[in-house]
Design brief:
This protein is an all-alpha fold and 484 residues long. The protein is built from 17 helices and no strands.
Length: 484
């Protein structure tokens, strides 16, 4: 089966899993928003700001290094698993020990959540290596099923049960640990070669060297991602931080559902065609066009329907999240769209150039949050948008220069998404103006259903080729051609 057929099959499977996963996340968000307080979320997010950068720096870079290699024997993968696992066991012990000292300055549950969260990094190694192996094999169906089941049981059932029992922020810790464990089991189901764990450092070194090169970029990206938590929590307090993180989840989730299928398949597909620059650029243009066509209209719809989303999904005591969503969704749309350029730069090993562009956006983000957060949560959300719009522009310009892309082609490929965004935004605002203020969920249903009918009609009329491409990655589209 040729690359196009492989990729489209992977996209269909991953898209179906992403939609199911997203629907499940919305249900979990609806339930947990009524069982946990903004302070509970703020404490958990504050602990993750210490754990997550270290965990993600090591695990995400190692996974990407595994995927980027053309050949990788099971023995080498087992060595990578062992070396990284024992390294993160040591890191977890340091974090747990530091929690003892943190308790002196931060009374309450924060130190306990930090100590319990120290288990996350080492536990996640088993899931990371197995998921990387499945991505190399384009086995996206198994990944989707494992993610769905693990999230339902871990983040959903276990967290809710613990919240009802009065565990507070520890509910999120326990749910996350169960989710990680179930993902590890699901990714390894039926796979025998990856179960072994060895500590042959010399065999793991080639992968770790690639991980180091990718890791410098990841450190900048991860630190940049933690800037909102680092500034909003200390300046505005745990409750405002909890509201900010819930607003981010609500704004980002629908777009993540729509783009995760494409971005998860994109890196392995780029690796296959990276030696053919003409074909590589064609894949990049098509991917950018498809992602923009779904991300930008979704962003416009989320921003316009923020009051209904908060009222229907979170409840009245989260109403202060409403004014944040428009700014956060602007930054989130930039994140999703720039992921195309990011994957292209990484696949073609333009790592140093990408590092400096990300460092520039990190500097802009830190200065924006330092200056604006003191004026309140809305201004912090504005700083979030500024940070990621800067990152999008930097990566777009860099890609045009080093990959010899056409700037005209880049913007032309984004035009359908911009037209779709204007259409959806205008429709949602018109519905609100004409119908007034009925129950939030009723208005939200009308807005979503109407946008779901109007947007495909506009794309099919104005951009029929793009519409056929989007149908092809859905379950209703025609079968992929094997000749491409």
């Amino acid at each position: 089966m040729q690359l196009r057929a492989h990729a489209i099959r992977g996209l269909k499977i991953t898209l179906f899993g992403a939609v199911c996963n997203g629907a499940l996340q919305l249900m979990i968000l609806f339930v947990l928003a009524r069982l946990l307080t903004p302070r509970d979320y703020g404490v958990f997010a504050g602990a993750l700001v210490i754990i997550q950068p270290l965990q993600a720096t090591i695990l995400s870079t190692t996974e990407r290094a595994i995927v980027l290699q053309r050949e990788m024997p099971d023995e080498e993968l087992s060595s990578v698993l062992g070396v990284v696992f024992w390294s993160l066991v040591g890191l977890g012990a340091v974090i747990a020990g530091a929690a003892i000292f943190v308790a002196r300055w931060y009374p309450g549950p924060f130190a306990g959540v930090l100590a319990a969260g120290a288990l996350f990094p080492a536990a996640s190694v088993w899931a990371m290596t197995a998921r990387a192996r499945l991505r190399r094999q384009l086995a996206f169906g198994q990944i989707a099923l494992a993610d769905l089941f693990a999230q339902f049981v871990g983040l959903g059932a276990v967290t809710a049960a613990c919240a009802v029992s009065g565990f507070g922020p520890f509910s999120l810790v326990l749910g996350m640990l169960v989710q990680i464990f179930l993902q590890s089991v699901g990714y390894r189901w039926g796979v025998t070669g990856a179960y072994r764990m060895t500590t042959n450092v010399s065999m793991a070194l080639p992968t770790l060297r690639i991980a180091y090169a990718v890791g410098k970029i990841s450190i900048v990206e991860i630190v940049r991602g933690q800037i909102p938590i680092a500034f909003v929590g200390p300046i505005l307090g745990s409750s405002v931080l909890g509201i900010f993180t819930r607003a981010y989840s609500l704004a980002q989730l629908p777009m993540e559902i729509l783009t995760m299928a494409i971005t998860r398949v994109l890196l392995p597909s780029f690796v296959i065609v990276r030696d053919d620059r003409e074909r590589f650029n064609r894949v990049l243009y098509q991917s950018l066009e498809c992602v923009a066509a779904v991300v930008l209209p979704a962003a416009a719809g989320i921003a316009a329907s923020a009051p209904q989303l908060v009222g229907a999904l979170l409840g009245k005591h989260w109403i202060s999240a409403e004014p944040l969503i428009a700014w956060i969704v602007l930054g989130s749309s930039a994140i999703m769209t720039s992921s195309m350029f990011s994957a292209a730069l990484e696949t073609t090993m333009h790592l140093r150039e990408k590092f400096y562009s990300q460092l520039f956006s990190l500097t802009v983000g830190a200065l924006s949050f330092a200056f604006l957060t003191r004026y309140g949560a809305v201004h912090a959300a504005m700083a979030f948008a500024i940070t990621y719009l800067t990152s999008f522009c930097a990566q777009m310009i860099l890609s045009v220069v080093v990959l010899q892309l056409s700037l005209w082609q880049v913007w032309a490929r984004m035009l359908p998404g911009l037209i779709g965004a204007a259409t959806v935004g205008a429709f949602v605002l018109s519905v609100q103006f004409l119908l007034g203020a009925p129950e939030p969920w009723k208005l939200l249903v009308i807005e979503v259903a109407g946008s779901g009918i109007l947007l495909p009609a506009v794309l099919a009329t104005l951009f029929p080729r793009l519409f056929r491409d989007l149908l092809q990655v859905s379950w209703v589209g025609p079968k992929a051609s094997r000749s491409s």
